[in-house]
Amino acid sequence: RRIMKKYIMTPIYYVNDVPHIGHAYTTIIADTMARFYRLQGHEVFFKTGTDEHGQKIEEAAAKHAQSPKQYADGVSAKFKDLWDEFGISYDMFSRTTDAAHEAAVQNVFRKMYEKGDIYKGEYEGNYCVSCESFFPSAQLIDGEYCPDCGKKTKILKEESYFFRLSAYADRLLKWYEDEKCILPLGKKNEVISFVKSGLKDLSITRTGFDWGVKIPPELNDPKHVIYVWLDALMDYLSSLGFCAGGERMEYWSDALHIVGKDILRFHAVYWPAFLMSLGLNMPRSIAAHGWWTRDGKKMSKSLGNVVDPREVANAYGLEQFRYFLLREVPFGQDGDFSQKAIINRVNSELANELGNLLSRIVGMSAKYSDYAINSKDVMKFFTAE
Ligand code: MSP
Fold first, then answer.
1. Is the distance from the beta carbon of residue 299 to the nearest atom of ligand 1 less than 6 Å?
2. Where are the alpha helices (DSSP H) in the chain?
3. Mean pLDDT of the chain
4. What is the predicted pLDDT for the residue at 2?
């Protein structure tokens, strides 16, 4: 088999929240994929990191009476420490406050601007700070609540630079014909209907707050901060040296994104359009998993129902916890987290089934072959008949 270079990515985590089971789930799936490909002999570059700019982080830092950078340093370290403790086999932990990333984001903006994909206009509509997402009024619930997270949105009317997303609709629809581009299939169909319902150009700068990457200085418009999602998505490329030395760009030819379903639109619509604008190839797959819930509600800091992954791993064992997360729900569906569920999986599958199998093998090998098992004989046994 051909050895390939493979790029596996988790989303980069917002630093307004401490890591919980939802984050651990995304990371453990990606880690499992990375380990799987390495076992097959492929050259894997596995990247995770933190998403540190934007209004949401600026507001969270202010609440803690810290500068955004101080605050981001603290929470980013918490993610990194947890992944280290969990033995996550990442090759790189990137941060959007790294100077090289910030320079790359400006360069990307410049490229798109020079290409004619960015123009200046005015945004009028609503903004959800929690999702860092724009919504036309018609999509809001009861005229003011975010259709994604249900929180109250803010009305924005401000000068903004726009990305010509509408120009990419046909090319996106063409790309969705690729069987494996978005997984699972049901999620892909949702993306296709979203695009078919009509794409508006995307506002990609904000004014009125400071915590982010400024647009290129030659545009003489210093009040504009680049939209945090453009900034964050570019991390996938800046981490490979895009718009700088390009030292790891060969990994981009086979890229796999693991994301939660809540951020699929950003990855399956905006991201490929940005890539098209930059003349780069599409990722091989964007795989969207479901949510961990507590009593049917998405686990999230704002609902106050998060479970600390460290506590679970300490109580039941790290391998048991990893097994549970991957085994409990089919990829793409939601799963309700409970102690009972994890105890059941550990007892019935790991202890009873696998444990029994192992002890029988050990017992039989003691009885019949003095513990010496020739793997070829075992294969003969399984392939007899
Ligand atoms: N910063 C953005 C991603 C930018 S990527 C260019 C972001 N960060 S996040 O910290 O809010 O979420 C990151 C990941 O955690 C997502 O994949 C999300 O789905 C996952 N989860 C957060 N809560 C979750 C659950 N309750 N259950 C499962 N995963 C969820 O979005």
1. yes
2. 21-39, 55-63, 68-85, 99-115, 169-175, 185-196, 228-233, 235-238, 264-265, 271-277, 309-316, 318-328, 339-344, 356-369, 375-383
3. 95
4. 87
In the block, tokens 């102690």 appear at 339
Asked whether residue 385 carries a pLDDT value surpassing 70, the answer given is: no
Provide the 3-class DSSP secondary structure of residue 101.
Answer: helix
Q: Which of 151-155, 166-170, 299-303, 364-368 has the lowest mean pLDDT?
A: 299-303
**Ligand 1 site, residue 272, Cβ cutoff 6 A:** no
Pocket test residue of 291, 293, 333, 336 for ligand 1, highest count of atoms within 8 A of CB: 291
Distance CA 22, CA 301 (A): 11
Would the pLDDT of 237 be above 90? yes
Is the C-alpha dihedral spanning 10, 16, 18, 20 positive or negative?
negative
CA distance 311 to 317: 10
Task: Say if residue 384's pLDDT is above 90.
Answer: no
Q: What span, in angstroms and rounded, lies between the C-alpha atoms of 189 and 330?
A: 18
Q: What is the rounded CA–CA span in Å between residue 153 and residue 146?
A: 6
| pLDDT confidence tier of residue 304, bands split at 50, 70 and 90 | confident
End-to-end CA distance of the chain: 29
| Pairwise CA distance, residues 79 & 15, whole Å | 9
Would you list the DSSP string of 22-71? HHHHHHHHHHHHHHHHHHTT-EEEEEEEEE--SHHHHHHHHHTTS-HHHH
Compute the distance between CA of residue 191 and CA of residue 275 in angstroms, rounded to an integer.
17
Amino acid identity for residue 70 in this structure = Q
